[in-house]
Fold this protein.
Amino acid sequence: MNEEIKQENKYITIDDFAKVEIKVGTVISAEIVEGADKLYILKVDLGEEKERQILSGIRQYVSVDDLIGKQFPFVTNLAPRMLRGFESQGMILAGSDDEGLALLNPSKKLKNGTKLR
């Protein structure tokens, strides 16, 4: 692959970014998925009529107590996906490096459903 093509693939446009819907939500509950070492089933208040169910493979890094009642950013316009027989309706955002995983938190409480941009 030549350098010019690599540069083209390095960047997205603002229109590409605008397609990703990221909203702040509060985790209402977190349950362990039986038979899965990494998965939690999160119930999340995203300011919608009903809570969303979001599955996340963060169990080895984060305890239930570190999730419940706290706000995090979620990608909310991913197509639903089945994992271990449960539907996931979004994705929690996190960062990771050689030392583990970190969840992202707003610096102050925001209204559930606040869109990040």
Summary: The domain at 18-116 is CATH 2.40.50.140 (OB fold (Dihydrolipoamide Acetyltransferase, E2P)).
